[in-house]
Design a protein that fits this description.
Blueprint: H1 3-8, H2 10-17, H3 19-36, E1 40-43, E2 46-49, H4 51-61, H5 64-82, H6 87-105, H7 113-140, H8 143-170, H9 173-182
Antiparallel strand pairs: 1-2
Length: 183
């Protein structure tokens, strides 16, 4: 098996080989995403939510479909329960963010996982920040409100990038997940 094939199939094998494991892992990450929608770190003028760490981590581990379910549907349900006004914005922003991260990570730089992960989560963060900003212009009907919240969206995206990279590479979650696939 070539390095490209080996790297590319990591996320796809779980869904293809063991559907019950895929459903379980996806559901656990989605539950974590929903739960973390309730908790935010208060900062002057807003909150930083920790669910971006879960979304980015799940996106690096799962295939694009699982990542979209965790990111988009998980954030949608979390907002539906705790703060329903932006729930459709969250569905689009986090769903596309997660799917993009997963697709890019599993296809970019097969031999260089850290580089691929860094580029993937950064592009995902740009997608999320852009869609949230545009969505807030639409939902709240003011460009000014969206611009006031922009620094918080960027900070939340950076929190997701750093947190997921630390969990996956320093915490060893990516290697542990690869071992689960082999079992």
């Amino acid at each position: 098996m070539t390095m490209i094939t080996k790297h590319r199939t990591t996320a796809l094998t779980l869904r293809e080989m063991n559907k019950s494991k895929w459903i379980t892992v996806t559901a656990v990450f989605m539950g974590m995403n929903i739960a973390l929608c309730a908790f935010g770190i208060p900062v002057p003028g807003g909150h930083l939510y920790l669910n971006d760490v879960v979304i980015c981590t799940a996106s690096l581990l799962l295939d694009p479909v699982g990542a979209f379910i965790v990111g988009g549907i998980g954030a949608f349900l979390g907002d539906f329960i705790f703060y329903p006004i932006p729930m459709f914005v969250s569905l689009a922003a986090h769903g596309l963010q997660a799917a993009a991260i997963s697709m890019l990570f599993h296809s970019l730089f097969p031999g260089r996982r850290r580089l691929a992960a860094g580029i993937s989560v950064t592009i995902g963060a740009v997608i999320m920040v852009t869609l949230y900003t545009l969505g807030k212009i639409y939902v709240y009907s003011t460009f000014e409100y969206a611009m006031i919240k922009l620094p918080y969206e960027i900070a939340q995206a950076l929190l997701g990038i750093v947190g997921s990279m630390l969990l996956c590479f320093r915490g060893g979650i990516l290697d542990s997940f690869s071992r689960i696939l082999r079992d």
